[in-house]
Amino acid sequence: MNFDAVIQYIHTTPLTWLILTLASFKIGIIVYEKFNKNTLLQPIIVAYAIIMSVILLTNTSYKEYFEGVKIIHFFLGPATVALALPLFNNLKYIKSLFIPIIATLIIAGVFSIAIAVGLLWILDAKLATILSMTTKSITAPIAIITSEQIGAIPSLAVGFVIITGIIGALLGTIIFKVIKIKHETSKGFALGLISHGIGTARAIEIGQKAAAFSALAMGLSGIFTAIFLPIVISFFK
To answer: GO terms for CC (predicted)?
Structure first.
């Protein structure tokens, strides 16, 4: 097999990346179910490992890969909106917890950003890197737009979003067991608030209430960050 010819074909055929992405996620699902839904082998993690390996092997840029999977990016919006269904089914319960939800959103949201930014500042990271980290806990489409507004690097911001989502989904369940969190609502809200879409995918497996509160947290966190983060950044600038 002519390896150079294969690489050339991949670079000149955008559809290759779409097929690879869908196939990788399908493989991830198979692996996840094969190993009794082990937390460390979630479909999204297996898919990322496969895709990143191919991207590095073929020396493909993020821009080139993104061009090939634009259709998936387009459907992120409708998919996020579809999460409104579990929200609607638990609307009365959500209303009864309105004050705790808002308080948790503000306190946890600010603390999450502050501790990440603080660590990077201590490690003497560049300003662009620090700014890119501030959008780590919101869903990718909002992170891209917000990062552009505050002068961050969109591709780096998306990278932080992915890493945060994976770590949250991996460690979330373990942390819940260690500190004995039993309520689905608490688990779901924490996963959605910190790990956005990837955390919400994990919350769906926990239960309907967890899915509802995770979707709620993801949405509110995205709105809260998109509105107030540019204002705060501009104030400090």
So the answer is: membrane
Alpha-helical (H) ranges within 69-207 are 70-82, 84-89, 91-96, 98-122, 127-133, 140-150, 154-178, 184-206
User: How far is the first Cα of the chain from the last one, in angstroms, to the nearest whole number?
Assistant: 55
Query: What does each C-alpha distance from 150 to 116, 138, 235 come to in angstroms?
Result: 16, 15, 11
Tens digit of pLDDT for each residue in 129-170?
888 888 888 887 788 888 888 888 888 888 888 888 888 888
Q: How far apart (Å, rounded) are the C-alpha atoms in residues 225 and 232? A: 10
Q: C-alpha angle with apex 153: 222 to 71, nearest 5 degrees?
A: 65
Which residue matches tokens 């055929």?
13
Distance CA 68, CA 20 (A): 10
CA dihedral 187, 191, 193, 197 (to 10 degrees): -140
Give the CA angle between residues 12, 13, 17 to the nearest 5°: 120
Render pLDDT for 61-74 as a digit per residue (tens, 0 to 9): 777 888 878 777 77
Tokens of 109: 């949201």
CB 192 within 8 A of CB 166: no
Contact 67, 78 (CB under 8 A): no
